[in-house]
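>> received
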Amino acid sequence: MPRPERTAAILVAAGRGLRAGAGGPKQYRELGGQPVIFRAMEAFCRHPDVFAVQPVVNPDDAAMFNAAVAGLRHQPPTNGGATRQASVHAGLEALAAEKPDIVLIHDAARPFVSSAVISRAIDAAGRTGAAVPATSVTDTIKQVNDTGDVEATPDRARLRIAQTPQAFRFDVILDAHRRAARDGRSDFTDDAALAEWAGLTVATFEGDPANMKLTTPEDFVREEARLAAQLGDIRTGTGYDVHAFGDGDHLMLCGVRVPHTRGFLAHSDGDVGLHALVDAILGALADGDIGSHFPPSDPQWKGAASDKFLKYAVDRVTARGGRIANLEVTMICERPKIGPLRDVMRARIAEITGLNISRVAVKATTSERLGFTGREEGIAATACATIRLPWSE
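>> returned
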């Protein structure tokens, strides 16, 4: 059940990430086939208790940002500042008009935040007003002087590693940032430190060791290997669908309304391209077919938009901890001509599924005037889906 308080999230993505090595800002580099920032942002965009996600970006990165997070819902990006603190302040000011009760502040370089950590952050902020996720320190820590000599060995039982998302009552943390800006304080490395300076008591809640920040090239190498091992069950499914023509003035093809002299005879909107893709994904999951999940005999699906079916199939993959690696659909028809619409269709499928458009292929062929497609009695489509799942026996 949704919480009564309104929660927004700020995704801090304005940094340069120079320690991560070559390849541009680390938040836009790919990890396991997806941009780091997409992974970091997706969990908040899909969380049922987060109503708004506010990205804070470097203005020079606008094109990279738009390409990296295509398909995710978010507020219009706001420009970051010279420091992380200034960027968070900009994000808070951008959200002020939305009047959230709670705000979660997360680093775009932490791509493995879980829905459970987000839920714990919201609960903690609601209880305490200011809270950070934290994990225990397992190694012995040494405090050293300028020459590298050990000065002290802190009690690790009292030490914690702070993570993000850090969670606050919105009005309280906004006021703290405004005070710091007025006082010329710009040296806080995280929002908890700023909150402590402002006199707030900051609580901790259970973090997640997997919710690590990517900082060095070695971090990327390690996480690539971990992801590959986790999603080692690579599966392929195929799909096929066909619909006859009837009366009408348009066709729905791959999620795009295409003007035509005929319409489809179908229980739903008759989108053969999306239907074939749904069957391909369900086939890769060994999870039945489109008819078993959306039976034509059920009146609730009469005239339904097929993007609902495709989103459902994608959610079935996500629910099993998997990812879609590639989608391909081939339209078989004499008319309408698919070539001029190919990239529009690819973009629409990418939007529905949340995939990068580079992972979506749309092709077309005729049947050389043979058979029902050659006689222009209908349209057929074939599809293929490649997915990656966690390995299980």
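>> The chain has a mean pLDDT of 92.
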